[in-house]
């Protein structure tokens, strides 16, 4: 990895996120987990899951032979003269995997600063996760990297956030998007599920990201997709009126004049692209949101992601 | 029909091709990186634009802008007839003498004259050829006959008065000869502060005179003389400054005399109308530049300052070759009283030529060597049989009958006529010499002293026996002064600095190397052409001439009572310029109606197009691209 061209922007964005004031705001956020995750005990309460021991009582059940007498509710027995066993809400650790699309498209157009925004968002999510004592790791994905990805080790404490920052600053947006190979390569033969957040512009054919999400769901991951978009991508007339378009990833070129009809066609294509992604996520139970980089990281953390159900 | 004053500017039309190339390159350069072409699949390619040059509105505007600029440079004008003959010629003579610097009513005479000249120039027809001459001490053709009135206007605006005297007669003689040679009617307009009556009678009736200036308010330094003998140092130097009041009322002010930057003397004065006053300044603290400056409130400033030079003491070594004699004792006494002189006395039998190389002057008394010494030499009463000045006889009791009063050796001497001498050799003066003193016997006239340059050395000879006349005798002061003057002539001082008048040509001789740089009083440096060994200072102040580390200073003073007398004796009403109607009639008679030069309009159009194009580019965003 080499320092990215947008390194200065990214460094400034990360510095803003790691400011004490913003971190204090993040303190009141928690990841919302929708299904059972890791088998390792942790602090994250699991919905519809109970276990023999814990702190928060889930329910009582009648005693059956073989139940652990340590969980017998003696107070209830004294009042009701019935043997009842306390069961507790399952609390497991929820490992968070943040997949960052580090393809060249994330750095174009420069005014949108999608990549720098993705790094800021990754740090913010990582902070929320380690704040709740859940491990977190960041994975950069593009076609240039070996096996399509480069992954940071799991972090378990806030003090490790600075090493995450160093890792993220080494990421350089380059090459083509490699969501499928990158995610599969990063998870490998890991069977323990967790939370997977994919930060990308998803400017890739639908079958590519659908296959990647299917693989995550098959591994029983709680999956969230964040579609990053910038003002120039929404309105390309900010960039040009006529010119030779160059695909940042493939280098293909087209000469385009932005007539009113062509602008309408582009906007329709963009709307269709986002709509297709959203429908797929809805169908598969994947938390999904579209985040405008111009709105800022705070808007994303306190509005977009809670609305998508990834954060509470 | 449309014609161009500067048709060569149309060569810039080649820039059209550059513009097209630039446009094609710019379009190729406008590459817009996008995250992916995935979203652009539905957008149609602009294949036509991609393959073929098709100008847009901005390009057309740029084309118009370029056309306006090129046309503006070509300076088109309208004329309703064919042909390019000259309808008339005009010669503008602008007086740039020092008196034109006089300021009256907030403007100088020169500015008034120049404005008049500009006004006249703008009234000429576009086909009229005009010549501009500036006249100071000598005339200078600034612009020869040309139809390009803009060049003339620029030259007029750049011209400036000098600090030198003026001589319009030469300029008018020149213009008269140019007018007589011309094959079309040629008029001469003179812009000066001199009245018509002071112009040469033969020429003044054929010129139009635009006279400017009225005031006579001027106080001037009309003389700065430094008195310093050849063998005197700065202690004995004196400066004499003469200040003259040229106005018809009493003048007041202060005279400050400085040595370099140190004030030596400052005196207040009041001078009656049209009178002058002298100031004697002495006790200078050292050698250096003397600057006399008037602090007065008058119209002309150029003559309020003058420069002089007190030279540093340079010692002269005298080698006196003589047998023991009273003259040697006299010389010893003389040298003891003169700090700039050193004396070495050698007997004739001990004299060696290399001793003379160390001396400034070698004095041979009653002896002449076989080989002349390689220095300046003075021979006193040479022996009769000497090989250098063969004597044809002796004369006794002769008198000085004639002398050359212009020679430096005889300056400031009272008449020497009939001064008796005891004895003298009768020697014929060589061809290279001049006779300084002469006498005669019954048979012939013969020199008593002669001097000249021979083989690069200054040589003088006194044929009478100076010892017998007692050099230091109070009765023979004239002989003593003559001897000292002769020594001064034989020991020429170094000329590190010279004082000249503005407008005079000063020859500084051949300097050791080229280039020769001259820095004028305004601080501007000029490199002289290879063969030029003289300068003509036109401004008051210090000129520094330098070449390869050697330097030479020239102080230029503007001292000219005629020029400083700015209030002219004859006050004539200025000639009213011809009315515009008459000018139009002249032009119409020549078959031409002067029309406007459209270049200014074209420049304005180019500016408007530029602003419009810029605004359009800002609004449409066509000028933006993401690199």
Keywords:
heterodimer; A: 312 residues; alpha/beta; Rossmann fold; 3-stranded antiparallel sheet; 10 helices; disordered N terminus; B: 627 residues; Immunoglobulin-like; 5-stranded mixed sheet; elongated
Explain this structure:
The complex is a heterodimer of chains A (312) and B (627). With 312 residues, chain A is an alpha/beta fold. Chain A folds into two domains: 7-37 and 93-308, 3-Layer(aba) Sandwich (Rossmann fold), CATH 3.40.50.410; 43-92, no CATH class. Helices cover 37% and strands 23% of the residues of chain A. Chain A has helices at residues 7-17, 20-26, 74-80, 114-131, 161-170, 179-187, 206-218, 231-234, 260-284, 297-308, and strands spanning 41-51, 57-62, 84-92, 96-101, 136-141, 149-151, 195-200, 222-229, 242-247, 253-257, 287-292. In chain A, strand 5 and strand 6 (149-151) form a beta hairpin. In chain A, helix 1 (7-17) runs parallel beside helix 4 and helix 6 runs parallel beside helix 7. Chain A is elongated, with a radius of gyration of 22 Å. Chain B is an alpha/beta fold and 627 residues long. Chain B folds into five domains: 2-79 and 598-612, no CATH class; 89-214 and 571-589, von Willebrand factor, type A domain (Rossmann fold), CATH 3.40.50; 219-313, Immunoglobulins (Immunoglobulin-like); 321-490, Rossmann fold (3-Layer(aba) Sandwich), CATH 3.40.50.880; 497-557, Sandwich (Immunoglobulin-like). Helix content of chain B is 24%, strand content 32%. Chain B has 14 helices and 34 strands. Classes of the chains: A alpha/beta (312), B alpha/beta (627). Strand 9 of chain A pairs parallel with strand 2 (31-34) of chain B, so a sheet runs across the interface.
């Amino acid at each position: 990895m080499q320092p990215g061209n947008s390194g200065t922007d990214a460094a400034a964005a990360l510095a803003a996120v790691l400011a004490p004031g913003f971190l204090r705001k993040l303190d009141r956020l928690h990841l919302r987990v929708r299904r059972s995750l890791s088998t390792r005990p942790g602090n994250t309460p699991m919905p519809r899951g109970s276990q023999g021991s814990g702190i928060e009582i889930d329910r009582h059940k009648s005693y059956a032979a073989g139940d652990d007498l340590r969980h017998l509710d003696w107070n209830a027995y004294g009042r009701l003269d019935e043997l009842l066993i306390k069961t507790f809400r399952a609390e497991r650790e929820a490992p968070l995997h943040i997949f960052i699309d580090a393809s060249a498209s994330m750095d174009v157009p420069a005014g949108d600063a999608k990549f720098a925004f993705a790094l800021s968002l990754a740090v913010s999510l990582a902070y929320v996760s380690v704040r709740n004592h859940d491990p977190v790791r960041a994975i950069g994905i593009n076609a240039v990297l070996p096996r399509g990805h480069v992954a940071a080790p799991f972090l378990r404490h806030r003090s490790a956030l600075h090493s995450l920052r160093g890792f993220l600053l080494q990421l350089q947006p380059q090459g083509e998007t490699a969501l499928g190979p990158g995610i599969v390569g990063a998870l490998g033969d890991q069977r323990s599920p967790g939370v997977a957040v994919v930060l990308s512009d998803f400017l890739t054919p639908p079958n590519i990201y659908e296959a990647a999400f299917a693989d995550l769901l098959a591994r029983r991951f709680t999956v969230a997709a964040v579609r990053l978009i910038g003002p120039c991508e929404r309105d390309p007339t900010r960039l040009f009126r006529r010119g030779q378009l160059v695909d940042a990833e493939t280098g293909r070129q087209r000469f385009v004049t932005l007539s009113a009809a062509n602008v309408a066609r582009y906007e329709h294509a963009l709307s269709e692209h986002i709509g297709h992604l959203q429908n797929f996520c809805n169908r598969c139970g994947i938390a999904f949101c579209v985040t405008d980089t111009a709105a800022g990281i705070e808007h994303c953390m306190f509005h977009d992601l809670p609305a998508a159900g990834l954060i509470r | 029909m449309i014609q161009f004053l500067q048709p060569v500017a149309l060569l810039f039309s080649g820039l059209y091709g550059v513009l097209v190339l630039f446009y094609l390159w710019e379009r190729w350069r406008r590459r817009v990186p996008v995250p992916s072409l995935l979203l652009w699949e539905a957008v149609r390619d602009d294949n036509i634009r991609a393959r073929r040059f098709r100008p847009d509105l901005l390009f057309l505007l740029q084309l118009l802008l370029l056309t306006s600029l090129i046309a503006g440079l070509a300076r088109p004008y309208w004329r309703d007839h064919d042909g390019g003959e000259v309808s008339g010629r005009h010669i503008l003579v602008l007086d740039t003498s020092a008196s034109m610097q006089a300021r009256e009513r907030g403007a100088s005479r020169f500015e008034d004259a120049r404005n008049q000249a500009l006004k006249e120039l703008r009234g000429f027809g576009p086909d009229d050829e005009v010549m501009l001459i500036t006249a100071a001490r000598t005339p200078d053709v600034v612009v020869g006959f040309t139809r390009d009135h803009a060049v003339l206007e620029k030259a007029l605006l750049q011209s400036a008065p000098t600090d030198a005297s003026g001589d319009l007669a030469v300029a008018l003689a020149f213009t008269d000869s140019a007018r007589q040679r011309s094959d079309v009617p040629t008029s001469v307009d003179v812009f000066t502060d001199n009245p018509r009556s002071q112009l040469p009678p033969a020429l003044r009736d054929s010129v139009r005179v635009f006279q400017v200036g009225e005031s006579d308010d001027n106080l001037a330094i009309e003389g700065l003389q430094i008195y310093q003998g050849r063998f005197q140092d700065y202690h004995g130097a004196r400066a004499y400054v003469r200040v003259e009041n040229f106005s018809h009322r009493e003048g007041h002010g202060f005279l400050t005399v400085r040595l370099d930057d140190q004030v030596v003397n400052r005196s207040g004065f009041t001078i009656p109308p049209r009178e002058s006053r002298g100031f004697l300044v002495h006790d200078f603290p050292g050698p250096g530049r003397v600057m006399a400056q008037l602090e007065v409130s008058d119209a002309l400033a150029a003559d309020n300052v003058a420069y002089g030079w007190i030279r540093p003491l340079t010692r002269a070594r005298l080698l006196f070759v003589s047998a023991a004699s009273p003259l040697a004792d006299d010389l010893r006494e003389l040298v003891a009283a003169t700090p700039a002189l050193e004396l070495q006395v050698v007997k004739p039998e001990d004299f060696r030529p290399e001793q003379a190389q160390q001396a400034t002057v070698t004095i041979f008394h009653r002896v002449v060597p076989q080989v002349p010494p390689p220095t300046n030499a003075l021979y006193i009463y040479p022996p009769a049989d000497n090989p250098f000045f063969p004597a044809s006889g002796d004369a006794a009791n002769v008198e000085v009958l004639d002398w050359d009063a212009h020679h430096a050796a005889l300056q400031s001497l009272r008449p020497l006529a009939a001064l008796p001498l005891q004895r003298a050799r009768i020697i014929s003066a060589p061809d290279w010499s001049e006779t300084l003193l002469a006498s005669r016997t019954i048979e012939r006239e013969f020199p008593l002293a002669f001097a000249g340059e021979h083989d690069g050395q200054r040589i003088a000879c006194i044929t009478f026996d100076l010892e017998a006349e007692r050099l230091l005798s109070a009765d023979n002061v004239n002989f003593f002064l003559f001897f000292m003057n002769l020594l001064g002539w034989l020991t020429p001082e170094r000329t590190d600095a010279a004082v000249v008048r503005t407008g005079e040509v000063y020859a500084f001789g051949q300097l050791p190397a080229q280039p020769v740089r001259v820095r004028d009083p305004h601080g501007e440096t000029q490199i002289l052409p290879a063969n030029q060994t003289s300068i003509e200072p036109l401004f008051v102040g210090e000129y520094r001439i330098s070449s390869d580390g050697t330097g030479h200073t020239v102080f230029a003073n503007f001292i000219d009572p005629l020029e400083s007398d700015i209030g002219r004796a004859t006050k004539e009403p200025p000639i009213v310029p011809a009315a515009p109607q008459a000018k139009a009639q002249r032009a119409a008679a020549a078959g031409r109606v002067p029309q406007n030069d459209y270049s200014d309009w074209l420049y304005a159009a180019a500016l408007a197009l530029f602003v419009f194009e810029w605004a359009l580019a800002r609004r449409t965003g066509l000028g933006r691209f993401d690199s």
